[in-house]
From TrEMBL:
The keyword GTP-binding does not apply. Keywords: Membrane, Transmembrane, Transmembrane helix. This is Membrane protein. It comes from Dokdonella koreensis DS-123. InterPro entries: DUF898. The lineage of its organism: Bacteria, Pseudomonadati, Pseudomonadota, Gammaproteobacteria, Lysobacterales.
Amino acid sequence: MHDPPIASPGELPALPPLPAEPLIAAAPGAPPPVPHPFRFDGQAGEYFRIWIVNLALSIVTLGLYSAWAKVRTQRYFYGNTRLDDVPFEYLARPLPILVGRLIAVALFGAYVIAGQFSLALQLGLALLVALLTPWLLVRGAAFRARYSSWRGLRFRFVSDYAEAYIRYLLLYIPLLLTLGLLYPYVKAKQKAFLVEHHRFGGHWFAFDARPGHFYPPYLIAWAVMTAWIFAASLLLGAVAVALHASGTSAKEPAMGLIFGWMAVFYGGYFVIWVFLAAALGNLVYNHTTIGPHRFQSRLQGRRLLWLYAGNTAAVLASAGLLIPWAKVRLARYRAECLNLLVAGSLAAFVAERGEDVGATAAEVDSLFDIDIGL
């Protein structure tokens, strides 16, 4: 496998016109694709040293160092993630991230403070953020793509604000009117938007999953959650009746029952969420292509549940000191479950021109937990 020639910034070829639809057809009679596994080589001890310094300096500087901490963390995880034995790179600079983070914190602070003076003002700010959400999603995705690279070639996210407003704002109207029944359809359209507007090396990413593919995972999760809540409520009712029959009327047992029911409810929700996340992760990656190449994801709900449960217990038992170990452990599993099925040669990727993208939107959507992940 030969690395493609990388042109210097002044020698990049002009960006070719973007086709209306991705072109991914393979030549007839082509050899079967060759799996190229992703690999994560990071070590918990290495990352712990980065993490503890980041934490200490962020505290000492009252959070100002957090932008540098984010860049150091991203560069470590990108640099230790490899495809075809070539590491990824994170190229963003700390200062733009710091400016974006300060703006995001100021906006969030204004929202919190407004609630102390005027509920109408707070609702107005919440509505403003909601109206800005599609724009923030596009700009945030563009920033992350622009400053991510592999083999010296940067990713790109082609902005389409009109389509973003349709899929991240207008589609919520029929979603509400159908009492949530269109939720899998909406998520499918949103995932397709994010995948299909990414480019790398002169090729479009494409997404061939239909909304119907999203309904089975969500319907199964909803059915199991409904049954879980029903069973937990029956158990709570039976215990309450037994306590009443025994003449117990103290407040403590009642509060214990309520907290016990909440623990059972959230425990069941956590288990179902993990299995749903594994199913959706496989669904999205297994229907994503770039040029003639296809992704293959093999996440397992049981293994992911074990990882999340073990990580949570370890972090709580160590008062947070095992956070680096937990993050490295999860990153290694996610990488080992992902392949790129290569049809042809990876040397066909070529450089494209791009433009700098501000970090403000990326920090705002991170602060308000706007979901744009796969």
